[in-house]
Design brief:
With about 130 residues, the protein is mainly alpha-helical. Helices cover about 45% and strands about 5% of the residues. The relative contact order is 0.20.
């Protein structure tokens, strides 16, 4: 309907129950064999293929974490961190995103993850995609 807000969550960018690597059997907990890397989550352009009137209806982006294979909160954290930071930046800075700058800044956020005891996926920092 015209005028209703739109939340963008296309599966190839926003389904965080998908693995974070292209080799999930080697690196990831049990789950989907599809993957969305940090880089892929960052690539989301919510306005892609939309007309200007539809672009104005976008209220934000969201990730999805379907929990059929999620064993506990630590597993959930592993699945969303640091991809959630990449997607959040897409939502608030889509017109001025810079992936290399994001990668340069993400260690500061990892320091918060560590201080809080969060279980984040380390693949971005190990050069694994």
């Amino acid at each position: 309907q015209q005028g209703n807000p739109v939340i963008m969550a296309p599966k190839w960018y926003c389904y965080f129950d998908y693995s974070q690597t292209s080799d999930p059997e080697r690196y990831e907990p049990l789950g989907s064999t599809r993957y969305v890397s940090v880089r892929q989550a960052y690539r989301l352009d919510p306005c892609d293929r939309l007309t200007p009137p539809d672009q104005r209806r976008i209220k934000g982006v969201q990730c999805n974490l379907w929990t059929e294979y999620i064993a506990d909160i630590r597993h959930a954290q592993h699945m969303v961190l640091p991809r959630m930071a990449a997607l959040a930046e897409t939502g608030w800075a889509n017109d001025r995103k810079d992936y290399n700058d994001f990668v340069r800044r993400i260690p500061a956020l990892v320091a918060v993850y560590k201080a809080e005891g969060y279980n984040y996926a380390p693949y971005l920092f190990e050069g694994i995609e």
